[in-house]
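User: Hi! Is it possible to get a structure for several chains at once, not just one? Here's what I have:
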Amino acid sequence: MESLLRKTTTYDVLREHGIDRRRFVKFCTMMAAALGLEATVVPQIVEALETKPRLPVIWLHGLECTCCSESFIRSSHPIAQDVVLNMISLDYDDTLQAAAGFQVEEIRKRIMKEYAGQYVLAVEGNAPTADGGVYCTVGGETFLSILEETAENAKAVIAWGSCASNGCVQAAKPNPTGAKPVRKLISHKAIVNVPGCPPIAEVMTGVLTYILTFGALPELDRYGRPKMFYGQRIHDKCYRRPFFDAGQFVESWDDDGAKKGWCLYKMGCRGPTTYNSCPTFKWNNGVSYPIGSGHGCIGCSEDNFWDNGPFYERLTSIPVPGIESTPNEVGAVVAGAAAVGVGLHFVSTEIRRATQKEKAPEKEGR
Amino acid sequence: MASSVHEFDPRQMALHPEDYFRREYVWQLPVRITHWVNATCLIVLFLTGLYISHPLLAPSGEAVRNFVMGRVRQIHFCAAMIFTVSFLLRIYWFWMGNAYSRSGFPYVWRPGWWKDLFRQATDYLRLERGHVHLGHNSLGGVAYTMFVILLGWCQIFTGMAMYSESNPGGFLNRVFGWVLPLLGGSFQTRMWHHTFAWGFVVFAILHVYIILYDSTQYGNGLITSIISGYKFYQKGDFKED
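Assistant: Yes, the chains can be modeled jointly so their relative placement is included. Here is the combined structure:
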């Protein structure tokens, strides 16, 4: 059997795959641009990919839909998917690899032992915690225990997608399986959250390239997301922003504004509250992205995005148990109650005043 | 008559006010200025906020020729900044001003505050003239603390956090950005900001009514006092503030 980790470099693999140096350098330049780095860093990326042994990666799948993998294998900008798959040494990915059953688990255990402290754990999906984690088991073990075991000796953990980063659909209310995102299960490791449902392929490869090149995690924001990809809102990079500022909004899906490509704010677009790179990288080889196709952003890379519904309204209901009302409804009721209270007080004051007037002559006589 | 409290007789009072009323300088200039700045800002903020959350009346023509939402947001942000400064100035004056600038504040550890709270509440409910305050009574203090100070802080923090989103990593983002994850993200922060805004509507209804009620009930010139600074009390009223 071939060694698990051929200690060749990414560059060697690319050459094996018939990619010439010119295209390789172009790829490095593109990656630098995608990472928001300046041109002087390009040689650093070239050198890293030429000399550093490939990064061993264990890719776990928990409660998920595999849309992250689907997105990942469609990565286009870093040359092609075979390059992407070879850039890292993807040693364990039960969805993509040929091996199956005990063989697969054997590989995972060997990597964990041979490359302790060196491998990167990429997690797709999250782990259900209710009833001992029985709602997701792989090879007879709960995913929760596999995750904790594999994270133990990992160099870093990458949480792919909204499931691993935020919880996503399976952690939405009422969350019967007690699904929890990786950051709530693993505390002692550096975690990079790469949210999105799925995350953009170029963002995924960009994160890996960064880790490989610099041997460190990219700069993260408050939510543990790489700033280079999640630093700005969709809204601030949206090509429909001029219509927002002008006050021109689509009112219904088939109105004139929709045909003219006006802002989708009133259709519930989550652009103003969503941090992602969609307007920059777009999807499917840069063809388009939701807003470009005339549909609002649903904020898939945001925490609780599934509970922030409905997708086609700007305001959600107040997350207080028992109150299924929007802020405007609550406001109207409370303001109405205040007005009624004031009205009652006023009326009773007037009644009292009127009845006192009848007694007035008595007072004068005193 | 043993008691020096005069009967409420508007005609006599108008003819010989000096026999009936005493005057006291209650609201100092910073209190009056911040009151009107806050009031103006809150009205502007609420109206522009309504537009921002639910924009109406789309202008026609090319986007380049229009800047309605942009302008409304600009006004909202400017008013927010002015409100914040005024709010902070008023907080400064809480300590620096005269005793009335602190009156009514919920000093919950003082039994006297609680006593006054229940007395004022029953006075209002029984529609009685009750006892006279020159500053705020305890009930007023609760209302101002809940609806102005607390709500004000909520709106300042959520608002500044959202405003800072347009410049990630900037000064405001570093100061207020932690609010966003605390409230469950940018979307939820908007929801709370919008909900809290209704608190000011409730406050405005209660505030304006109680001012009108108080002013007629006590004949204390309460409405004009926030312009002139002077409040009146009837001769013989127990002055306890």
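The beta strands of chain B are 21-25, 230-234. The mean pLDDT of chain B is 85.

User: Great, thank you!
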